[in-house]
Amino acid sequence: MTTLGAANVDSVLEAIQQVVGPSSKEHPISLHEPDFTGTQAWAYVKECLDSGWVSTAGSWVSRFEEELCTFTGASHAVVVSNGTVALRLALHLVGVGYSDEVLLPPLSFVATANAVAHLGAFPHFVDVAPNALGMCPISLAARLETIAERREDILVNRETGRRIAAVLPVHVFGHPAEVDQLLAVSDSWGLPLVEDAAEALASWRGSTHCGLFGAVGTLSFNGNKLITTGGGGALLTNDADLAKRARHLSTTAKQPHPWAFDHDAIGWNDRLPNLNAALGVAQLEDLDRRLDAKRQLAQRYADAFADLEGVELVAEPTDCISNHWLVSLRFTAEDPRAVQAERLQLLERAHSVGLLLRPIWTPLHQLPIYEACPAGSLVVSENLAPRLVNLPSSPQLLDGCAA
Ligand SMILES: *Cc1c(COP(=O)(O)O)cnc(C)c1O
Q: Is residue 346 part of a domain?
């Protein structure tokens, strides 16, 4: 395999510029930017302000939930204040608690591991699949085979003595992970599957929306996601009882009553405010147009990179529909040190002209906060991480492109 020379770093930069148009330090282009043009956002937010319904109750909250169900096919959606608390609540609802372990991939945003840690539980890292970005079903099965032991009713990590409580795959950059196979493995061990679908609204494996394979899945509506509510998140589930408990625990576990304050559990104040939900409805109404623009943008990148050596785009997995949230470039040279140097060169050159490319996250097991966590072999993740860099992917960039 070839290594990129300096001239090739130039060609990569030119290919990106050909797709996204001009940028400069004064007018930079970020990875993914919010956009409300052409939507009803102003009118809907004004309605909240005029009516005084700005907080955690109001009609936009239930309307946003209903429309999320309609779009994804979920029986239930519960909207909350961000994707991190959505995950923490989802994990709590499937029984993850203090001192448990949750199996998750190291290639994710830090929030995936943080949500586990917020419950007093421990991330336990399992490798990702070669040529895919999501957790590897074979590595998951092998890891459980190595460390898991059934003691009476609970599954224990025989190396740490702690209970193994859940499996938490991530749909990275909007590309569906192999959740059908991951579910088969987790089911065979009696483990609940929770999907971090924060980046995967409008991504499907077969005809099933991401987040609906396991017990519960979560979305994020942070400012850089496919659609945004400013800050926000959701739980998706087909389990009526789980949805009911999610709604209850996200609103301080208060028992319904016209005036009395009685709480039957230690709940959270996680509910999404009406103001944010109004933005969510306006963004959902614009979703098909955004998806179409993102698909076209991804195609333009594919065309621009078709003839370049030493780099390739991360492809939509087979039998899946990806939302193409972030377009990712992979450096293909064999030597990881060489690719790291090439990637650094590209990042420096791009940032100097206001093209704000970002490398994939530092693998979570390499962060000091999580380096002592249990882990299987992570060779695939460690080989992949230095190779990936994300390209500007906002749907509104399409308008700036030369056709
Ligand atoms: C964005 C994101 C989250 C967290 O969502 P917030 O709304 O920012 O709290 C969790 N996991 C992944 C993979 C994400 O990309």
A: yes
* 1 occurs within a structural domain: no
Domain CATH number, residue 218: 3.40.640.10
Those residues with Cβ within 8 angstroms of residue 311's Cβ, 6 or more apart along the chain or in another chain = 4, 12, 305, 329, 330, 331, 332
Q: What pTM did the predictor assign?
A: 0.96
User: Within a domain: residue 143?
Assistant: yes
Q: Name the domain count of the chain.
A: 2
Q: Is residue 375 one of the residues assigned to a domain?
A: yes
Cα–Cα distance, 72 to 306 (Å, whole number): 33
Q: 165: closest CA among 226, 105, 104? A: 104
Select from 109, 210, 235, 276 the residue to mutate for testing ligand 1; criterion: most ligand atoms less than 8 Å from CB.
109
pLDDT per position as a tens digit, 313-353: 999 999 999 999 999 999 999 887 889 899 999 999 999 99
Q: Which residues are catalytic?
A: 225
Q: Which domain holds residue 204?
A: 41-284
Sheet holding 164-167, edge to edge: 122-125, 101-104, 164-167
Identify whether residues 260 and 210 lie together within a single domain: yes
Tens-digit pLDDT profile for residues 31-40: 999 999 999 9
